[in-house]
Amino acid sequence: MRNGFSLEILHTDKNCGARYGILKTPHGECELPMFMPVGTQATVKMLSPEELISCNAKVVLANTYHLALRPGTEIIKSAGGIHKFMNYNGPMLTDSGGFQVFSLTKLRDPITEEGVSFKDPLSGKKYFFSPESVMKLEEDIGADIIMSFDECAPYPVSYEFMKNSVMRTIRWEKRCLNAHRREDQALFGIIQGGNYPSLREYCAKELTSLPFDGFSIGGTAIGEPRYVEYHEVSLTVPYLPFDKPRYLMGIGSLDMMFDGIRKGVDMFDCVLPTRLARHGTLMTSTGRINIKNSRYKEDHTPLDSKCDCYCCRNYKRSYLHHLMKCEEGFGARLLSIHNIRYLIRMMERAREAIKNDDFLSFASKELSVYKDERGC
Q1: Rounded to whole angstroms, how far apart are CA atoms 173 and 207?
Q2: Residue 189 near residue 172, CB atoms below 8 Å
């Protein structure tokens, strides 16, 4: 791996593929598996960097597409990089913006071998992303870990469509490797292939033969059924090297995270916890609740008696209900703190279970309180 980076896998659960390890980066080390909060526009919505640290967050994400449009990566570079720009001194990761670009079906031109042109939805200004330009954008932003520029195909598509997409992704990611210059940034490859076993295998084998510093499982959480998401992870993990980080992109629900962990995935990210919080929905040790429900109007108990977050230590359900019914920003902020801490705390407990060869039992018990609910 590049300068300042290393991965040490310290234990693998004897009953499954779940693994515990330490990932070292130039801005600190992280225990794996871990959940990474998403700060799309150089901020995790509603939370300050200090609050993220209090939640024991380690790696925080930012989005290349959004930062390229506003404020522009040249401004971030002139500020000293993303860490100084947003005043967060822990490890950071940027995705390539590929998912965002390819989701703009009405605002982008047809994809070419060189890259893709698209319009800013707000200003109408035209941009062009190629593997080389995205590497330059991510190097200007300056995160510790950066993603290759891939083609994120929609779901569902035909085998022939996905085959062409995979072949282009491989060619683009090779160009990313050739264009990447900063030795203080780890570059991850992204495995695509949809739900086609032969394409997942081919993409994984091609990319893992190249000197990437880690690998991501792409093309999940884009609208496919849950069983397909599970299957896509199963199709990919067996071909990923043991000695490099494994990252399942865009996943923040407990069932998907736990499924990934038992198969050997190390890293997860999602906007889910803060998005749910802004609508009053909370993940708790007794299941999922919506604090706007009238039953909480006179409930003067802590949100979650088993949670150690700032919200649960200092505020009652009745007050949180009041804030959210009044649409006070402080309410969404407190709920966001709780949901972020909930998922990070789950990862802390998962790591302990792995070290004790007890992950499967731990995961089954925790998921039982959510029954058949999705998105928890």
Answers
A1: 8
A2: no
Neighbours of 297 (CB within 10 A): 12
For residues 21 and 4, what is the distance between their CA atoms, to the nearest angstrom? 16
Distance, in Å, from the CA atom of 212 to the CA atom of 206, rounded to the nearest integer, reads: 11
Q: Are 342 and 310 in contact (CB under 8 A)?
A: no
Question: pLDDT (tens digit, 9 = 90+) per residue, 164-214?
Answer: 999 999 999 999 999 999 999 999 999 999 999 999 999 999 999 999 999
pLDDT in tens, 9-51: 999 999 999 999 999 999 999 999 999 999 999 999 999 999 9
Give the tokens for residue 144: 């510790």
Structural contact between residues 52 and 87, judged by C-beta atoms closer than 8 angstroms? no
pTM of the model: 0.96
Torsion-angle region of residue 72: left (phi > 0), alpha (psi -120 to 50) or beta?
A: left
How far apart CA 12 and CA 357 sit, in angstroms, is 8
DSSP single-letter state for residue 292: T
* Max CA separation in the chain (angstroms): 61
Give the whole-angstrom CA distance, residue 285 versus residue 308.
12
CB 319: neighbour CB atoms within 10 A? 18
Structure tokens at 156: 């569902």
Three-state SS at 187: strand
Q: Report the DSSP beta bridge partners of residue 221.
A: none
Distance CA 104, CA 291 (A): 34
Q: What are the catalytic residues?
A: 95, 269
Give one DSSP letter per residue of 26-55, joined into a string: TTEEEEESEEEEB-TTSS-TT--HHHHHHT
Query: Is the bond preceding 131 in cis, omega lying within 30 degrees of 0?
Result: no
Tokens of 178: 């050739």
**Rounded Cα–Cα distance for residues 186 and 144 (Å):** 6
Q: What are phi and psi of 370, to 5 degrees?
A: -95, -10
Q: Which residues of 87-126 are buried (b: 16+ CB within 10 A; e: fewer)?
A: ebebbbbbbbbbbbbbeeeeebeeeeeebbbbeeeeeeee
Quick one: DSSP state of residue 1? -
Q: How far apart are CA 80 and CA 196, in angstroms?
A: 43
What CA dihedral angle connects 77, 79, 83 and 88, to 10 degrees?
-160
